[in-house]
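TICKET: design request
STATUS: open
ATTACHED STRUCTURE:
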């Protein structure tokens, strides 16, 4: 049974593979090729104590309630879809135009990815129904009855 708690056990599986090699095609020209694959799994809470607003086509249809949905293991839903397309090629070269070892012209190209930043799921830790936030801002005190007002007038708030 799931219970409300602020103790979260976030998990995320990450896998990375990389291979690279260099070839001296001429005495003054070196070519380097590499390939990296990065699979960043979707973060989840180990005890399925996390929920999120999942928006799909039709989520905001007239007369339909918008609700928080449990995400993670056993829920059949994730925070977002896993991206399997993170193929990252690399290519580089080094060229000595005068073949004297004093000048080098270098160039490189690569495609790089980064995983989704951690506060995406960290911010979801306080979503209902597993956690509820309550804020109370009293506008008066014994010593200063109108301490939360301007010139003794109540400040409207939403």
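STATUS: resolved
RESOLUTION: sequence designed for all positions
ATTACHED SEQUENCE:
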């Amino acid at each position: 049974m799931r219970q409300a708690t602020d103790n979260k056990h976030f998990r995320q599986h990450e896998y990375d593979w990389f291979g690279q090699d260099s070839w001296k095609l001429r005495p003054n020209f070196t070519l380097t090729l590499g390939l990296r694959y990065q699979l960043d799994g979707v973060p989840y809470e180990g005890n399925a104590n996390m929920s999120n607003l999942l928006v799909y086509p039709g989520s905001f249809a007239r007369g339909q309630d918008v609700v928080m949905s449990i995400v993670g293991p056993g829920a059949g839903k994730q925070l977002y879809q896993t991206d399997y397309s993170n193929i990252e090629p690399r290519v580089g070269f080094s060229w000595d135009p005068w073949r004297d070892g004093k000048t080098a012209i270098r160039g490189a190209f690569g495609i790089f990815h980064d995983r989704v930043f951690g506060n995406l799921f960290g911010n979801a830790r306080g979503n209902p129904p597993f956690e509820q936030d309550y804020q109370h801002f009293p506008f008066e005190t014994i010593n200063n009855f109108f301490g939360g007002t301007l010139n003794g007038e109540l400040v409207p708030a939403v």
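CLOSING REMARK: Strands lie at 10-11, 14-26, 29-40, 44-45, 51-53, 68-70, 87-95, 105-110. The two ends are 36 Å apart (CA to CA).
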